[in-house]
Structures are given as C-alpha cells and as structure tokens.
Task: inverse folding
DNA sequence: GTCTATACAAAGATAGAC
DNA sequence: GTCTATCTTTGTATAGAC
C-alpha cells in the first residue's frame, strides 16, 4: 500500500502552505488545485467553497500549534519558564512547518474584512487559546486578580514578535527579544504581587 | 471657487480609506472609482496601475503619520515622554483618520507577497522611520551602544499594539498596555546603563 | 484631464461522465 | 470520489472621443 495522502489531505496541505507563504486572496483556487494535484470538483465536493477549505486548513494548523505549545510547556522545568514557553513553541512551530511570511491566522484576519461565521470563529480561536492558556499559566505565578492583565500583556508581546517577522526581522531574533521583554513584564508583575502586604 | 478636491486627491482619499477599512486585494478598482466618483481612464492616467495608486496613497499617509508623531514629540515635556510619545501619536493618528482595521502598512505588506519596487520601498519606509526616530530619542536616555536595541524593542511593542487591534482589542486599551510595557522596558534599559560602573 | 464603452484575462464555482 | 470541460461573474486595464 503505502498510498500517498488522500486528495482531501493534499488539499489541506496545499491550502495551508499557500496561505502561509503568500496569503489567501492572492492565491487563486487554481494554484491550490495544481499544488494538490486535484481537480476543482473534488475541492468543492469536500469543502463547498474556497473559504471552507481555508477554514479547515486553519483549524488543523491551530490544533498542531496547540500540541507544539503544550509540549513546550511540559518540557519547561519551572512555572516561569512554562509561561515563557510560548516563545519556544513559536520558534519550534515555525521551524517545523512550511515557511510562512508571518502568522497565518493574523494574515487571514487582516485580508478578510467580512469572514463567514466559521472562519471568524476559527480566527478568534487562536486569540482565545493564547489568552486562556497564558492566563492559566500566569495564575501560578501572580495574584489571580492580576493574571488576566499579565496574560493580555504577554499576548501583546507575542503578537509584536509576529509583527516584527512581517517587518523583516529574523524569527529567532524577534523571538529572543520578545522573550526578554516578556521576562521583564513577568518579573514586574510577580514582584508587585509578592511585595504587596 | 471653493472647488472640491481634484480627481487625483479624491482617488488618493478613496484608495487610502478602502485600503484601511477592508484591505487592498479585496477592494476592486471599481470600488475605488465609485467612491472617488472618477472614471477608470483618469485613475490609470494618473497612477498607471492599481498598485501605483496604492503606493502614492501610502506615501501620503506615511507623511501625515510622521507629522502627527513629530507634533506629539514636541508636546512631550521630558525625554522619556518624548520616547513614549509614539503611543500618543498612534492614538491621535487613528482617531483623526478614517477608521482602519489595523495598520495599513502592515496590512498591505501582509497581503502583498511580491510588491513592486516602489511599493516595497514605501512599506519599508514605515519600519525605517519607526526604528530611526526611536533610536534617536533613545540615545538621549541610554548609552549610545544600547539605543538601537531599545529602539527595536519599542518597535516590537508598538507593533504588538497594532496586532492587538487586529485581534479585536480596543485601540486605547491596547495603546495603554503597550505604553506600560514600553515604560518598563525603558526603565530597565536606563537603569542598567546608569547603574553600570 | 476626463469621460463612455469595451477589450481581455482570471476568478470562483458547477455539470455531467466515469 | 474523482475527473474533464465549461459557465458566469468579476477583475484590471485600454481605446478613442470630447
């Protein structure tokens, strides 16, 4: 056997790669079909529309990002390093996949002013995951009241790292600088908590 | 007289507004023409291509952003506040113009994988301006050796603020959080400089 | 400089056979 | 489930007149 991936998987691969490399709106359906070596009818039979395909590809990518991130958290020895593991995960995630210009989720969000319900929810799921997990991890380090605030700041810094990649900064350079800033933010928050009476 | 703006200006206005509100690639030329109340031939006579029009619109917008930022720097009383004035300028800039989904320059960069030479240069000019001016201002506060590093970190945080807007955070909320993080980064850099022997 | 009308290419999506 | 062939709409850009 050792058959090659199904047409459905090839479509998801092609859509994800092209969306990551050059964006959705500049990628015609034809380009996805050619890369996946699949006919138009097959795409529409499986996914209904181009946006449907993109949505499914993003869902799969988000699940993989989630897995990578969780692995990095488990590997981190201390609560503080678990909180900062999001930067390790970012670097690992990006080195593992097809090179992308920056963040695929933010990229699709930026070029889709009126997404359908499913796509909109998938895009929001990325932000939700970031905020939710960082808040959980933050709660092990600072006062519960302050955890949401710290989480939002870390998402801001993480998002800044992604933006710097779009501006042309090397991934590892941007990640290192983001991690540094995040470390300071973290210590400031933890310090103010523990020093308060 | 009090004649209305020329067709060229109306085209620039329309292109800038639509690029800011919904992005370039989803905005057909027809939509720009309709908003500007101008015929196709006029657009191509002035700007050659759609990308030429977008490029000129971005150049004008960058010049206005530059002016706003400089005003905020002049108004700031201390060197530290001058360095943080980029956040004041961001808020002021965005409230003064047509509502945009996030940063027009990063938005166009994100959806244009292969820009022409002029557009590419215009997009890069935004990042150059940020780095260059922040480095100048940083040099008044920290060791000259450290100024570029501090400037890069501030650009990262500033870019993070923009990204948070794309994620759905309110502009003023994101700006305030960015400013807070930037203030800490700044104090850490200034502190390490002055405390070193 | 600006208009009307239109050329030409490319897009997303579907029909019908196998 | 997958293919070939095609339909329809929309996109950018131009021709030629005023």
Result:
């Amino acid at each position: 056997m050792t058959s090659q991936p199904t047409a459905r998987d090839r479509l998801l691969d092609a859509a994800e790669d092209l969306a990551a490399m050059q964006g959705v709106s500049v990628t015609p359906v034809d380009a996805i079909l050619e890369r996946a070596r699949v006919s138009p009818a097959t795409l529409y039979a499986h996914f209904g529309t181009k946006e449907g395909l993109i949505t499914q590809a993003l869902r799969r990518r988000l699940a993989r990002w989630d897995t990578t991130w969780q692995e990095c958290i488990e590997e981190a020895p201390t609560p503080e390093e678990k909180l900062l593991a999001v930067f390790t995960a970012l670097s690992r995630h990006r080195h593992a996949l097809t090179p992308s210009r920056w963040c695929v989720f933010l990229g699709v969000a930026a070029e889709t002013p009126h997404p359908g319900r499913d796509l909109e929810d998938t895009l929001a799921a990325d932000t939700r995951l970031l905020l939710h997990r960082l808040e959980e991890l933050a709660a092990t380090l600072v006062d519960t009241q302050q955890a949401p605030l710290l989480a939002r700041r870390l998402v801001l810094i993480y998002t800044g790292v992604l933006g710097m990649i779009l501006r042309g900064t090397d991934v590892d350079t941007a990640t290192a600088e983001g991690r540094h800033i995040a470390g300071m933010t973290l210590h400031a928050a933890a310090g103010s908590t523990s020093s308060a009476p």
